[in-house]
Amino acid sequence: MKKTLFVAALLLGGCASHPQSLILAPTEPMPSMNAASTTSVALSSVDHRTDTFLVRIQEGDGPAQLINASSNPRALLESGLRDGLAHQGYAMSTQGQVRIALTLEELRVDVDQGTVRHTASSSAIASLVVDKGDRQLVKRYQARGELKGVLKVESSVLEREVNDRLNQLLNSMLNDPELHQFIQ
């Protein structure tokens, strides 16, 4: 009897559906560098991702399940970068001496869902174009990750994976010595 209940619970758990959207909440970045001056910085951003979904779950030969974000990942990335730069001592302004254009190029998790296990790879790519007078700096940042697990992938695991990639991007940008040297 117990064995039958266990098998039934396992089968029902395997039929659980995934959410239609993920909650994005990257942690506050931990910049290790501080501005040597209170340079004013204007920040703008655009989303140039070719796919607007965050997660693609492929199970067998069937159609992929696509999961979106509950909030705008470009806006979250911009907000995190703005807050981090302000925390480092830069004066954030709409008419800054330095203009930074943030482009979100990719943010995605691809999941290969099997019957008893799943594997996933995640990728986030963003670029910064920094203009200061007649000089320009272009930087590209990438964050990648992989995960493996048993049974169906859980939404909390997917949320953590996407948030980890956003955190990696933010920390790479905020702790980039070349970027800070150029701004100052």
- The string of secondary-structure elements, in order, is HEEEEHEEEEHH
**What is the CATH topology assignment?**
Rossmann fold
Taking the sheet with the most strands, its summary is: 8 strands, mixed
Tally the helices.
4
Radius of gyration, in angstroms, nearest whole number:
20 Å
Helix content: 25-40%
Q: At CATH's second level, what is the architecture?
A: 3-Layer(aba) Sandwich
Q: Would you tell me the structural class of the helices and strands?
A: alpha/beta
User: How many discrete domains?
Assistant: 1
Strand fraction equals 35-45%
CATH H-level name... which superfamily? ABC-type transport auxiliary lipoprotein component
By DSSP, the count of extended strands is: 8
Structural account:
This protein is α/β, with parallel strands linked by helices. The chain has a single domain (38-183), classed as Rossmann fold (3-Layer(aba) Sandwich). It is built from 4 helices and 8 strands. Strands 1, 2, 3, 4, 5, 6, 7 and 8 form an 8-stranded mixed beta sheet that branches. A hairpin with a 3-residue loop joins strand 6 and strand 7 (117-132). Helix 2 crosses helix 3 (155-174). The termini are far apart.
